[in-house]
Amino acid sequence: MSSKCWMFILLLSACQQDHDSIKPVDESVLPGVWRIAAPGMVGFVFPADGYVYAPMTRIAELMITDILMAEHVLQSQMVLLDLHTTYPLSPVRWKLHGYTRQYKGYWDTDGNLHIYINAIWQEEQGGKGFYLVHDGGNCYWQAWVDVKNKRLYDLMINGEA
């Protein structure tokens, strides 16, 4: 199935869900965080903070279409990066649906949008703060999506201490 057709189906299915599928998290917990849920994924969109990862140049506001594209790229390309040689435990691609995602957007020097994905295994409270975890094994991983080029890159699965 072509990526345009798949993207349309994913967008349509997200729009057909009830209004709770995309809603702000309790603003008293963390202002500006949005929850998104679609078949096979739950995530939280964070406003990019003042820290900008090199070589990104500035923070970006993310839209629902950006997140859906990032999810499409993630689910279609994870098999290319998450190999048995990547980590000694079972590949995270086998259980993508069990990870809560946290998203932040950034612009590179050429003006292209990149989305940082931070994944946490079965975390219901992913909207209360952006997790930075060292160790923890494959319960935690991070990756980048280049939206313009529809490319997943820099997958990093945490190690164990």
What overall geometry do the principal axes of the alpha carbons give? globular
**Helix tally?**
2
Total individual domains: 1
The chain-level mean pLDDT equals: 76
Q: Could you name the ranges where pLDDT drops below 50 across 5 or more consecutive residues? A: 4-24
Task: List the helices and strands in order.
Answer: HEEEEHEEEE
How large is the radius of gyration? 15 Å
Sheet-strand content, in percent, reads 25-35%
Helix content class? 10-25%
- The strand count comes to 8
- Give the structural class: alpha+beta
Give the termini separation.
42 Å
Could you walk me through the main structural features you see in this protein, from its secondary elements to its overall organization?
There is one protein chain. The chain is α+β, with helices and mostly antiparallel strands. The chain has one domain (3-157). It is built from 2 helices and 8 strands, in the order H-E-E-E-E-H-E-E-E-E. It has helices at residues 3-16, 64-81, and strands at residues 22-24, 34-38, 41-45, 58-60, 99-107, 113-121, 140-146, 151-157. Strands 1, 2, 3, 4, 5, 6, 7 and 8 form an 8-stranded mixed beta sheet that branches. Helix 1 (3-16) crosses helix 2. The longest helix is centred in the middle third of the chain and has 18 residues, at 64-81.
Characteristic key phrases:
alpha+beta, 8-stranded mixed β-sheet, 20% helix, 8 strands, 161 residues
Quick structural gist:
The chain has 161 residues and is of the alpha+beta class. It has helices at 3-16, 64-81, and strands spanning 22-24, 34-38, 41-45, 58-60, 99-107, 113-121, 140-146, 151-157.
